[in-house]
């Protein structure tokens, strides 16, 4: 699997801010969207463009536009919603495919509870967003659904990835590209990423 760690100074700085133990809900939420925006910039850097002629201020002019534009953004509920505003800044017309998956606290296995997917997934690029790739189970469960609908170009965007999750996702779906702001050390005995961000869903939604 292709793993792109986005090492831009803005990304590193913002992830550093997110690691503060005393961060407020407001700041965590804002930063999740901002890093989501920066990851999207990177994850769309290979989109094909085509040259078209438009009517400019001084007559016809050749400009480039993105070819096709068939994209679906796939937030994994809940925490993936926290990155959505940033992702949609760059892809305002993208279709949204919502997938609900939570991780069982005891078994750490993903539990799928909701899906509402865009049409024509076999023709769309899917950008799956979730702040945390821990064991990888939730991301794999979401991609299982997209693959079952024939989706061929899948990009996963996460804020923090654990080596364990990268390995699992790469074994399940070697053709997926993972964009992450950080690759952390390991998972603890409760399946939390160390040093990580803590429980991203709770921090974004202000729950505990
Ligand atoms: O890689 P995994 O081991 O599957 O863990 C990562 C998942 O855990 C978190 O969701 P959580 O289950 O806390 O649900 P929430 O977003 O509703 O809080 C996170 O947002 C990922 O979806
Ligand atoms: O570290 C982790 C692991 C799973 N889910 C989270 O929100 N954080
Ligand atoms: Mg959570």
Please describe what this structure looks like.
Its EC number is 2.4.2.9. Keywords: Allosteric enzyme, Glycosyltransferase, GTP-binding, Magnesium, Nucleotide-binding, Transferase. 5-phospho-alpha-D-ribose 1-diphosphate binds at residues 78, 103, 130-138, 199. Residues 6-207 form the Phosphoribosyltransferase domain. Uracil binds at residues 193, 198-200. By secondary structure, the chain is α/β, with parallel strands linked by helices. The protein is 32% helix and 33% strand. It has six helices and 13 strands. It starts with a strand and ends with a helix. Residues 76-79, 102-103, 108, 110, 130-139, 165, 191, 199-201 line the site of 1-O-pyrophosphono-5-O-phosphono-alpha-D-ribofuranose (PRP). Uracil (URA) is lined by residues 132, 134, 191-193, 196, 199-201.
What's this, in brief?
Helix content is 32%, strand content 33%.
Major sheet attributes: 9 strands, mixed
Instruction: Note poorly predicted spans.
Output: none
Helix and strand run: EHHEEEHEEEEEHEHEEEH
Radius of gyration over C-alpha positions, nearest whole angstrom:
18 Å
What structural class should be given to the helix and strand makeup? alpha/beta
Say which molecules are bound, naming each kind only once: 1-O-pyrophosphono-5-O-phosphono-alpha-D-ribofuranose, uracil, magnesium ion
Number of strands: 13
Strand content: 25-35%
- Overall pLDDT score: 97
Helix content: 25-40%
In DSSP terms, counting alpha (H) and pi (I) runs of 4 or more, how many helices? Answer: 6
C-alpha termini separation: 34 Å
Anisotropy-based shape: globular
Binding site for 5-phospho-alpha-D-ribose 1-diphosphate: 78, 103, 130-138, 199
Family: Belongs to the UPRTase family.
Binding site for uracil: 193, 198-200
Cofactor: Mg(2+)
């Amino acid at each position: 699997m292709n793993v792109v760690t986005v090492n831009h100074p803005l990304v590193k700085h913002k992830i550093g801010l997110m690691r503060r133990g005393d961060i407020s809900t407001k700041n965590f939420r804002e930063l999740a969207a901002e890093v989501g925006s920066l990851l999207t910039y990177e994850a769309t850097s290979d989109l094909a463009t085509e040259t078209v002629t438009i009517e400019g201020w001084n007559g016809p002019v050749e400009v480039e536009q993105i070819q096709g534009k068939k994209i679906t953004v796939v937030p994994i509920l809940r925490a993936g919603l926290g990155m959505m505003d940033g992702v949609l800044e760059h892809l305002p017309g993208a279709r949204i495919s919502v997938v609900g998956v939570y991780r069982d606290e005891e078994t750490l296995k993903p539990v799928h509870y909701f899906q509402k997917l865009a049409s024509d997934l076999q023709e769309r690029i899917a950008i799956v967003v979730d702040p945390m790739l821990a064991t990888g189970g939730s991301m794999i469960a979401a991609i299982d659904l997209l693959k079952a609908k024939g989706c061929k170009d899948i990009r996963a965007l996460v804020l923090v990835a654990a080596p364990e999750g990268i390995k699992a996702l790469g074994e399940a779906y070697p053709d997926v590209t993972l964009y992450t702001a950080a690759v952390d050390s390991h998972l603890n005995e409760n399946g939390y990423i160390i040093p990580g961000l803590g429980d991203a869903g709770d921090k974004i939604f202000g729950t505990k």
